[in-house]
Amino acid sequence: MLIGYARTSTLEQEAGLEAQKRDLKTAGCEKTFEEQTSSIGERPRLTAALDYLREGDTLVCTKLDRLARSVLHLGEIVNEIKKKGANLRILAMDIDTATPTGTLLLNMLGSVAQFEREMMLERQREGIAKAKAEGKYKGRKPTARAQADTVLNMHKEGVTPTEIARQLGIGRTSVYRILNDV
Fold first, then answer.
1. Which domain holds residue 155?
2. Annotated catalytic residue: which of 9, 38, 70, 174?
3. The domain boundary residue, chosen from 95, 115, 135
4. Which of 15, 24, 80, 137 has its CA 20 to 30 A from that of 52?
C-alpha cells in the first residue's frame, strides 16, 4: 500500500499543501497523512503515518525537505521504515529505498540538502549581523507587550490566562510574563 505524507511549515502555505496532496494522489497513495507545522516541532501526523506502515508498504512524500530536517533525522525515519519492512519513496527525486541504489542516492542527497540548509542559515545570520551593524535591523516587533493593558484588564475581569492568550492570539507564556511584571 502507498501511504502519503504531506507537510507545510505554516498555515499560509495552503496551496503548497494542496499541490502535495494532488501529487501524492496521482502517485497512487491510498491514504495520506498531512500537517501544517514546522519541521523542528512535534509532527504527530508523521508519527501516525510511520505507525500506520505495515510490511510491504511504501511511505511516499513529494520532496525530501517535507519529510526530514537533517541527515540524522532522515536516517532515523528510514530506519523506522525499514524495521517495519516498508520502503520510502521521494517523488521529486524519483528515489525509492526498495533498491540499494535508491538508498544510496537518498543518503547522498540528504547530505547535500542538509549542507545547503546550513549554508542558507549561515548567509542569513551574516545578513542579520550586517544589518544590525548598519542600524537597519530592528528585529520583530513585540506583539504581546503591545497588548499589556488589555491583558491586565481581562485578568482583572477574571478571564484565565489561557483564555486571554487564545482571545488575543498571543502565547500563554507572554500573558504570564505581563502579569508577573505588574
1. 145-181
2. 9
3. 115
4. 15
